[in-house]
Amino acid sequence: MNGEELINVCQAVEHGHTRFVRNTRSNREGAVVSANGPRIEVRIGSDSETWHCEECEEITSAPAG
Known about the structure:
By secondary structure, this protein is an alpha+beta fold. The chain is about 20% helix and about 45% strand. The protein has a single domain (about 5-60), classed as Roll (SH3 type barrels). A hairpin with a 5-residue loop joins strand 1 (about 20-25) and strand 2.
């Protein structure tokens, strides 16, 4: 995810919209909770993980399962 994409996702989340991302290294998917600099906090089920934004791509729908 480049800088502009990250800004767009962060602004959407700040305004109460849900955005989903996929980690391109682990292939895990989740909902963006917040972002702090180059790191994104992602909710995966009942857990959360922090991913580096360069390892993420936005996806258009909720993760399956």
